[in-house]
Amino acid sequence: MYWFVIKTALLGAASVLAPLVVFRLTAHYQAQQGLVSLGISLLVASAFAIPVALLVRSTLAFVKQYQEAIKPPAPARHTIQMLDAYLDPFKALMDSTKDSVYLLGRDGRFLFVNKTHLDRMGLQEHEVVGRYYQDIHSPEEWIRTESVLNRVLRNNVVAEEEYQSSRDGGYYLQTMAPVQDDKGRLSAVLVTSKDISERHQFEDRMKTWAMQDELTGLLNRRGFLFFAEQQQSVARRLGRKLLLLFMDMDNLKTINDTLGHELGDAAIQEMAQVMNETFRKADILARIGGDEFAVLAFETTTGYAETLQSRLLQTVLTHNARKGRKFDVSMSVGAVIWDPASSETIEDVLTTADKLMYEQKMQKKGRKK
Fold first, then answer.
1. Claim to verify: residue 179 and residue 269 sit in the same structural domain
2. Residues 85 and 65 in one domain
3. 309 and 353: one domain?
4. Which residue from 13, 102, 143, 199 puts its CA 20 to 30 A from 223's CA?
5. CB neighbours of 130 closer than 8 A, spacing ≥ 6?
6. How many domains does the chain have?
7. In 3D, which of 246, 243, 244, 248 has the Cα closest to residue 361?
8. Residue ranges with strand state E in the chain
9. Helix 221-238 vs helix 346-368: crossing angle, to nearest 10
10. pTM
11. pLDDT tens digits, one per residue of 147-195
């Protein structure tokens, strides 16, 4: 009798609990239609009080079949395992860095993207992971990236380059490194992109400072030669003549000795102002020495050199006519016309103009005597 009671209880429990267990499993994995059918079959069988041992065996068989069914294909399973093994230990670190970090498959598909890069693009992870690089970035950036990506995968090397983003205009230092799976095959590329916009701006400022006169804001000698040589190349290609004026202030030493260097600096600054008011924006203006200045311009008409010098003199007279002045501005000028058929360099033309300026200065001193 005790056995009958125990047996009845076990069968009753099996008929109640087993259907619930199987129902939960089948409902949870309902995407596997064949497995759902198996679960339903077990529900029906258990309702007729299948022995517990048989029910357990059936349930275990079902679970095993489910596990086999949901396994991804071998290549996908291998990729997932590789990514998990590679990324899991570093994911938190990647998300905390200020640099963009992402993983590209061989076909240019995003496999992983850190938070910095998502924020930089203004996108969510589900909008990026699984999509191709060219789906998110501009065609120009994809062409550049694809070229580097292919080089990295083809040669198994690390590549580094600077570029300007078409998305935000910033400058970035991008590094691409090949990623190998556990069998040594190149399966992806790890990309880091560091924002170097501030450094780039600093370098631009340094270049500007290297070519700009601090006192006047005009180009210095280095800047003048740099832009003048470019202008000379254009003029030679177009068959155009150039006009170079070399100017030297006449009375700067007197101003410094009698009025002090502060007013001497003011005289230099006023000379630069005179030049800005006289010449065109397209002309190249520079302070090439302490009290020496130069202008390079395209010669537009016959007699243009005389016209410019006359205009320069008129501007000087206007400044000197102002009331309350403690000094007058004056300069000697040497003018040289460069012909595109000539082999002279800008340095050669400057030397010739300097000599002509000196001759004019000596003539002025002779007249004063």
1. no
2. no
3. yes
4. 199
5. 109, 110
6. 3
7. 248
8. 100-105, 110-113, 159-164, 171-180, 186-195, 242-249, 284-287, 292-298, 331-338
9. 110
10. 0.50
11. 999 999 999 999 988 888 877 888 999 999 999 887 888 889 999 998 9
